[in-house]
Specification:
Helix 2 packs parallel to helix 5, helix 3 packs parallel to helix 4 and helix 7 packs parallel to helix 9. This protein is α/β, with parallel strands linked by helices. The chain is about 45% helix and about 20% strand. It has one domain: Vaccinia Virus protein VP39 (Rossmann fold), CATH 3.40.50.150. It has a seven-stranded mixed sheet, with helices on one face. Strand 2, helix 5 and strand 3 form a beta-alpha-beta unit.
């Protein structure tokens, strides 16, 4: 799916380069998905959404996608890094799962209008990569038919300090990529305004993982009659 190369995509190509993609794929093969990915997989599974298609925004080497394929889903995996898309495709072919995944190399915000709505939309450690999270969230939420899930840095002083230090180091080295800690209340307002309700929230010391559901009106009507 062709798309013009955005400023974000150029920065992502620099940050998420072939060396990092290879290292992350090797780590995934040895240790499985990381903490936020495991929490997202569990939260989505516990939400009651079964089958359908996952739109994995910022899919990386495919850890979240591969885990949800095991639960009977198909997937559209979108990432702005060609190296990470290549690594995920390599793993999909190695494990015989390539037939169930559509890979897209692009900045999701730039090509969102070209993608279909899906049962589940997930963003694992992606919101922090955008200076303004609202356009990303609006574009992603509009594709979610049942479930919207994301992980993001906790809005705590030590996370803001750490992110600021990382960005300063990137600035000195000439790396244009930046990360951000966005206010949780603003993200919640954007998501709930679109008609979703928080189903679960899990936290590590560094990250929060939220799963939202679009209310099932038939289920709610049944519960009210009981």
């Amino acid at each position: 799916m062709p798309a013009c190369c955005s400023t974000f995509e150029r920065a992502a190509e620099q940050q998420f380069n072939p060396k990092k993609a290879a290292a992350e794929l090797e780590r995934y093969r040895k240790k499985g998905p990381g903490p936020t990915t495991r929490l997202l997989q569990h939260g989505i599974a516990q939400s009651g959404v079964t089958g359908g298609t996952l739109l994995d925004v910022g899919s990386g080497v495919g850890a979240l996608t591969f885990g949800l394929l095991e639960r009977g889903m198909t997937a559209i995996a979108v990432d702005a890094s060609s190296a990470y898309v290549g690594a995920a495709r390599q793993e999909a072919e190695r494990t015989g799962k390539a037939h169930a995944i559509q890979f897209v190399h692009a900045d999701f915000v730039s090509i969102a209008s070209q993608l279909p709505a899906t049962s589940v939309v997930a963003l694992d450690r992606v919101v922090c990569c955008y200076p303004s999270c609202e356009p990303l969230l609006d574009a992603a939420i509009s594709h979610a038919e049942q479930c919207f899930a994301l992980s993001y840095p906790r809005d705590a002083w030590y996370m803001r300090w750490g992110v600021g230090l990382e960005n300063a180091q990137r600035r000195v080295s000439g790396n244009a990529f930046r990360t951000f800690v966005h206010p949780v209340a603003a993200m919640e307002e954007t998501i709930t305004r679109a008609g979703f309700e928080l189903s679960s929230r899990s936290e590590t010391w560094l990250w929060s993982v939220d799963v939202y559901l679009r209310p099932n009106r038939d289920r709610m009507a049944t519960a009210e009659r009981m």
